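Lab notes, practical 5.
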Amino acid sequence: MIISGGTLSTGRVERIPFGLAASNVEAYNRGSLELLDERLAEQHPAMEKGAVWIMHLFEFNDLAHIPASIRQTLLELMESCNRGFRSFNQRAASEAMDQAKQKSCRTIVELGAGVAPLTKLLAEDARQTGIRLVPCDLFPDVASYRALEQSYPGVVKPLYSQVDYSRQHDFGPDALAALVGTFHHIPPKLRKQTLQAITKSAGRVMVFEPLRNTPISIFLVFFSIVPALLLPLFGMGSRGALRRVLLCWLLPVVPCIFLWDGVVSCLRQWSPARWQRELREIAGPTRPPTVTAGIHSLVVSW
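Output from the prediction step:
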C-alpha cells in the first residue's frame, strides 16, 4: 500500500509518492512493490502492506467513564457475536487447548479476560484435565470469576487482584498466556513493551484477534448491526432484559457504539507482516512466531 498524491492506493504505483527517500526510489525504479511496501511500512508506522490505514482512534469500550449499563450490554453483545453468530471464541479455545497439550502447558492464563469467555469454554473442554485455568484483568469481573470458580472447583483459579499485563509476571515456563480480542486496545507506544513483558511472563503466548485491518473485514463489521438488534430477543426472561431493550431498541446507543468500536478495532490491527517483524525482534530465534490470517480474524503464537 502506498500514498500517491495524497490518496490511498494499492496495486501498481501510479507515480513516485512525494517525498520518497532515495533508497525507496531505487526500489520503485526496479518495480519492486514488495520491497517498496516494506520500506514504507518501516519508515511510516501508519502505512502497512495490505492495511487500510493504521490509526488508534478512541473506542467507547476503552473509556473509564462509560456507564456500567452500556459497558455490560457491549460485553454481552461481543459474547453474542463471537460465540453465537460466529464461532470465533470456540475456535480460540480449541486452538489454545491444542497448543497447551502440544507444549505440555499446565496453566492457561487468560489476560485481559473481561467476563472470561475463553476460560469458560476451556473449562468445558474434556481435554483440560490437569490444566489450571487462570482468568485475570486490570479490572477483574469478580462476579463472573466467582461463578466460574464455583462451577469448576480446582480447575478455574482466578486472580482477583488487578493484573497489568504490560508489566512482567511470573506465570511460569509451563504456562500459556492467551489474549482474546484484547491486544488492539493497547496504545501503539506500549505495544512493544507489552509484548516483551508477556513473552517473559509465560513459556507460550497466543493472541487471537476477531478482526483485521482490511477492506473486507471493515465491511463485515457493519453486519454486526443484526446481532445488536436481536440481542434483546435472545435475552428475554433473563437478568438485564429491560436494560437491553432500552439500550438496543428504545435508545439504540449500543448498536451505534458497537459499529464505531468495530471499525476502529479494525483500523488498530497490525498486519501479519508487522506481527512477524516485531516478534522476530522480541522473541528471538528460540520462539519463532506463527501468524495465521483468516478473512476476518488473526491468530498469532510464539
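Observations recorded by the TA: Strands lie at 2-4, 7-9, 107-111, 132-135, 172-180, 202-209, 290-293, 298-301. The first strand starts at residue 2 and ends at 4.
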